[in-house]
Structures are given as structure tokens and as C-alpha cells.
Amino acid sequence: MAKRAGCSLSATTYYFNGLEDLLHQAGLVNIGLWASRAERVADRVEAFKGSPNLSQRVRFILQATLPAQGGYFGHYLQLISASQAAPVKHAYRQGRQRLNAALRRVLRQLDSPLEPEMVIAVVDGAAVTALSEGWNVKSTAAGLLTDLITLAHGMPSFQVPGASTRSPAPGEQSSVAAQSRSSAY
Description:
mainly alpha, Tetracycline Repressor, domain 2, elongated
């Protein structure tokens, strides 16, 4: 295990119960770094004076969802490869709530009706498309996010698969839907 992990035998046997544990812990570190990045952006958005315009909103969302220094190919290759290592896949799933919570803070502060799952799906899809077709990742994601925000204005929010699908009673509006109709992008 130590040789495969590129660590000393004493370090791996002292700190980890085996390769599965090492992979799981590495996955938790990765998702923790991504969530920390999104939390820092949420702090900046919450401290922002005034109302950000559409391009500033998109920029904040991209800062929360994409690696700051580029390296997009490696980032997405790692995400896709996680499906081949159950401990990493489970760690990513476990840490996803923290990432979603941070992005939800960003979105709510921007008065967006969008949910983190939808935004991440659009950004990730844009990144993979851009990488596979030789486009600029940030520009592609920014264009699609701009379209999504514009389309979402005045529409009900995205429903997470498996979430409650209860419709509002007659005359009742969800707070997110009411916010989306009253907020200006």
C-alpha cells in the first residue's frame, strides 16, 4: 500500500487502516478544499456592498464552482475517475453537502432562485464541453450561466431528484418562486 500511495510504510500504516482509508481521506481533503473555496466566495458575496450586476453574479458563481488557477482538465479527469474508486466516490458524495451549502449561500445572497445542484451541473457540463471541443472553460461556463440566470428569472426553482414534489396549495407561493419574480437580474 505504501509503495502504491507513494508514502513511507510507517506513515501509511500509522495514519491509515489501508489503501481504502487513504483514498477516502484523500477524497475528503479534495472536496473539503473545493467547499472551502466556495465558502470564501460566499463570505465575499455576503460582504459585497450594493447589488452585483449580472456579470458580477456570474463571476461570483464561477469563483465558487471552478478551480481558481485553471487546471480544468486535471480537475474534471479526477472527478470522472472518482467513479472507479469507491472510497473516493463516497468521500465526494459525503462532502458534497458542504459544497452545496456554500454555493447555496452565494446564490441566496445574489437573490437567485437557482439551486446548487443545477448550477454545478451547468458549470461542470460547460467545462467538459469546452475541454472536449477546445473552447475556453470560463467563457463557456459564463455564457451558459448567464443564459440560465436569465431563463430562471420568474420561473420556479429546480427540484432536486428525490426531493418532495408537493405543489403549493391554491393561492400559496413558494418563497423561492416569489423571490424569483420580485428579484431583478
